[in-house]
Amino acid sequence: MKRFDCLKFLASLVDEHMFAVTSLSINAPFWFNVRPQGPNFFALNMGLCLPFALGLAVAFPRRKIIAIDSDGSLMNDSSSLITVADVNPANLVAFVMDNGSYAFMSETFTTRRTDLAKMAQGAGIANASTVTTLEEFTAAAKQAMENVGPTLIVAKVERDAGRVSADRSRTSGRPMREWFMDAVRRHPDYRGRR
């Protein structure tokens, strides 16, 4: 299945107040293309997507928090699965786009024996599964958005060819961070200083 098709469907389930964070991968420009508005934090360095989303889930418990991670990124800090299971946030949904590669470089261990959903289950995340078709993805995503979490869905996607364009001022660096913090301060659930 294609990553873009999965993310396009996921965007249809996300309302204007749900937070979404992406890993530093093609997830960032794809997500920007399907959901440019709303409180999005794009392109977190490897290993930081799931922990960052967990922090948002704790800070904003009334909203679904979406993590759009990648196989290489999650494997860089798989201990975050243990922390997610321990905190057990009802509002966290993590999608791991598993294309079996580190960008355009080499294969990840998920092409061999590593099973990220089983790792999540072993860490204590009961709602963890792997999907291989768009039909399975849509059903799992709908259920995850309706149910109490945490939930982790590993989507086995094809390798993406070429680059995807996105407004870099909105998807990377200081301008993106400032845009995100402005969206947080405007969020109806924000309790900090305005």
Could you name the ranges where pLDDT drops below 50 across 5 or more consecutive residues? none
CA-CA gap between termini: 43 Å
Strand order of the largest sheet: 2-1-3-4-6-5
Count of distinct strands: 6
Class based on secondary structure composition and strand pairing: alpha/beta
Which band does the percent of strand residues land in?
A: 15-25%
Helix content: 40-55%
What's the pLDDT, averaged over the residues? 87
Radius of gyration over C-alpha positions, nearest whole angstrom: 15 Å
| SSE string | HEHEHEHHEHEHEHH
Number of H- or I-type helical stretches: 9
Largest sheet: 6 strands, parallel
- Outline type: globular
Describe the fold and architecture.
Helix 7 (134-146) links the parallel strand 5 and strand 6 (151-156). The relative contact order is 0.19. The longest helix has 14 residues, at 173-186. The chain has 194 residues and is of the alpha/beta class. It has helices spanning 3-13, 27-34, 49-59, 71-76, 80-87, 116-123, 134-146, 168-171, 173-186, and strands at 19-23, 40-44, 65-70, 92-98, 127-131, 151-156.
